[in-house]
Amino acid sequence: MSGLRARRHVHPPHTEEHFRSPETVRDAILGLSDGLTVPFALAAGLSSLDNSQIVVAAGCAELVAGAISMGLGGYLATVSEIEHYDAERERERAEVRNFPHEEEAEILDILAPYGLDQEALQPVIERLRADPERWVDFMMRFELNLERPDPARTWICALTIGFSYLIGGLVPLLPYFFIQHARTALGWSVGVTLTALFIFGYIKTRLLSARRVWRGAFQTMLVGALAAASAYALVALFNTA
What are the transmembrane regions (predicted)? Predict the structure, then answer.
């Protein structure tokens, strides 16, 4: 009987699947997205000149400059997030110190929607009041929805975005390294890059939402195709003018 009762309380193991590094995934997606699109549009536009050497030279220059620019942009954005968090934390620390009763009322406002009244929350409030730094942590997390960014993320973000941009940008340029006639290379570049954009769009949508993955794949491919077609038409227009 006791064995049966024990078996009834055995639960199958449960593993929660969540991203461990969502910021890194976001940075990689940003870099790959721009890397597949911007050099593709540039190469397509310059292909109207029918000189692969020009496309390769300009494409590589843009690739290096774009990777550095994107990486620095990611670095500065992360530094700004840290500075913003520190400023808000200092402001919240002053409010906890100077207006404790108002901050206690905010705790009630935050947790009231979860069915917790003042009587239930009084032990929590007393605990937080005894440790002002934890109180500030609580308000930062639940009132302002802010978590301190990892300072190491500055360089990780910069390198991830820059390297992803570099990898993505090499895809549309590869055919021009092997095919002398730029317009012939353009056909290969279009095929390779649109395929890469489709796969990238599918994986990106799958990772972020897992819904309408085919729609996301086609949308990503369409954006890249429109950018390349616009650049090609614009350069061709100036070339014939």
Answer: 155-179, 185-204, 216-238
